[in-house]
Write the structure tokens for this entry.
Amino acid sequence: NIILWSLYLKIFGKKEEPVVEQSIEYKYSEDRIFHELREYVDNTYDQHYSQNKFQATEFILDSGHGTGFCIGNILKYAQRYGKKGTKEDARKDLLKVIHYGIIALHNHDKEKD
């Protein structure tokens, strides 16, 4: 990496230091859960939630009801956690809570801009 960085400096004349990725030892399996969450979200784009490449959530956010919709779904799945189905169903409820949290953050940032 140092050789490549030196070559980069000679070619482009940059004097910035390279960004070194720090290896983090996650205590709560965040890396595994991030990966699983990504797969879960990706799958929602292939399911019935997405019709003709549009999700109903998009229409709800565009109509100005995104915050209430997302918070309502977060509460719904959080309250349902562990009360319906198997342990795997309960786990999916937590993934849904996180997914709606991400959508809420997106909506929050969009409204601030």
User: Anything to note?
Assistant: Helices lie at 2-12, 30-44, 56-62, 66-80, 87-112. The chain is about 65% helix and 5% strand. The longest strand covers residues 50-51. The mean pLDDT is 85.
